[in-house]
Amino acid sequence: MMMYGRDINLPPAMARGPVPDQRAPRLPESDYPAWLHSRLQDLHHSVRERADTLSWSMKQRYNIRAKRPEYTAGSSVWLFDPRRRVGKPPKLESWWAGPYVVEAMLNDVVA
């Protein structure tokens, strides 16, 4: 329905023949494009609402277990260093340097 604006005719349905559709009104040919446009807009709106609801619920489930890393003085950390070096293929190069030791915490952002 979402792709074509009508139910798809699959091989078993073709063998049985067409089933009268009670949902689609019999309209003059001039009114059908407007009816189809409004039907597809309604369908798109409902699909968008459902996707937003599912996205929000997945975010909530993820955030239950998500934790911020806690760094203290003396913790070992790795430094992300994405520089590309000349003559070395980036696919085989590690972008992490370290381990380094945290000497002091200046604030929550800078260690």
Count of strand segments = 2
Largest sheet: 2 strands, antiparallel
**Poorly predicted regions:** none
- Strand arrangement within the widest β-sheet reads 1-2
Q: How much β-strand is present in the residues?
A: 5-15%
- Estimated radius of gyration: 29 Å
Alpha-beta classification: alpha+beta
H/E series:
HHEE
Protein name: Anamorsin
Structure, explained:
The protein has helices at residues 11-16, 32-65; strands at 76-80, 96-101. With 111 residues, it is an alpha+beta fold. The protein has a two-stranded antiparallel ribbon. It is elongated and about 80 Å long. The two termini are 55 Å apart.
Keywords:
single chain; 111 residues; alpha+beta; two-stranded antiparallel sheet; 2 helices; 2 strands; 10% strand; elongated; Anamorsin
What is the strand and helix layout of this fold?
Elements: H1 11-16, H2 32-65, E1 76-80, E2 96-101
Antiparallel strand pairs: 1-2
Summarize, please:
With 111 residues, this protein is α+β, with helices and mostly antiparallel strands. The protein is built from two helices and two strands; from the N terminus they run ααββ. The radius of gyration is 29 Å and the shape is elongated.
